[in-house]
């Protein structure tokens, strides 16, 4: 079962990416002003995507005194790619007649990515300090 976990994480991550793109690009009935709950959803979505990216595509990390530094360094490309993914979705939304580009959505997406990086950093410090 342990050997199947990386495959499960990859499948889940890719499924989440596709699901996110589809949900973000389908027509919606938008009524009223900007809903702040929407920003929470954006933040939570990109938080989960960041953690899934970390679980799905782990990098080899040397077991030394610099584990915390190497952890985020190893995964920085995951976070950069998620930022680009979010930007491309926002651009695609701006090209539709039923959605629009939003800088606030980009900020919420980036906040979720940053929170996932923070969680990974805290986890790596906790794990390295208890070894």
Kindly list the characteristics that best describe this protein.
131 residues, mainly alpha, 75% helix, VanZ-like, transmembrane helix
Summary of the model, kept short:
By secondary structure, the protein is mainly α.
Number of strands: 0
Elements, N to C (H/E) = HHHH
The N- to C-terminal Cα distance equals 25 Å
- How does the overall form come out from the CA principal axes? globular
What's the pLDDT, averaged over the residues? 83
Give the oligomeric state of the chains in this entry, treating copies of one chain as homo and distinct chains as hetero.
single chain
What is the beta-strand fraction? under 5%
Protein name: VanZ-like domain-containing protein
Keywords: Membrane, Transmembrane, Transmembrane helix
Organism: Litoribacillus peritrichatus
Describe the protein.
This is VanZ-like domain-containing protein. The chain crosses the membrane at residues 7-28, 40-57, 77-95. It holds the Pfam family VanZ. InterPro entries: VanZ-like. With 131 residues, the protein is mainly alpha-helical. The protein has one domain. Helix content is 75%, strand content 0%. It contains four helices and no strands. α1 packs antiparallel against α2 (36-56) and α2 (36-56) crosses α4. It starts with a helix and ends with a helix. 20% of the residues are buried.
